[in-house]
């Protein structure tokens, strides 16, 4: 398996919840010229949080699908609905993922729940990196962390408030239209 000693050694340390020193575009630029087409496709899939073509990125994707399925089951249970139509198939099963999701939903508010779920994703990326820290798994783990850190860096109170107001306005507008049509 190909090793990426220099590339991985040159990447900055990322910490969930802190401003990232590298965004996805900079990571892509750093990878240019170092990766095969297959490796690039796998890194892109992880950065975009979508199913990879195949190979080592599939392990991380299967963990993500199981995590999402566990979230669906918890939310469906809390609402008294059936989760079956939202569950996606995946390879393997981890009791640890199920426990991390259950623990996340014990947090008192949605923001803390989401942070715990992303901590679980971070741990899964770390576990993948341990299989080959200077190979493709190490790069895939870093790509997942770039995605997570950039997501959290993009959240701010003003943008959140503006989005809530947009959603409220949409609901009110739909309500007005329904009354007018009735």
Care to describe what's here?
The chain has 182 residues and is mainly α. It has helices spanning 5-10, 24-31, 37-47, 57-79, 95-104, 110-131, 136-153, 157-181. The model has no long low-confidence stretch (mean pLDDT 93).
* Number of DSSP strand runs: 0
Helix content: 55-70%
Determine Rg (CA atoms, Å).
19 Å
Name the poorly predicted regions. none
Mean pLDDT level: 93
Estimate the global geometry from the Cα principal axes.
Answer: globular
Task: Summarize the helices and strands and which ones pair or pack.
Layout: H1 5-10, H2 24-31, H3 37-47, H4 57-79, H5 95-104, H6 110-131, H7 136-153, H8 157-181
Helix pairs in contact: 3-7, 4-5, 4-6, 5-6, 6-7
Name its key features.
182 residues; mainly alpha; 0% strand
Provide a concise account of the structure shown.
The chain is an all-alpha fold.
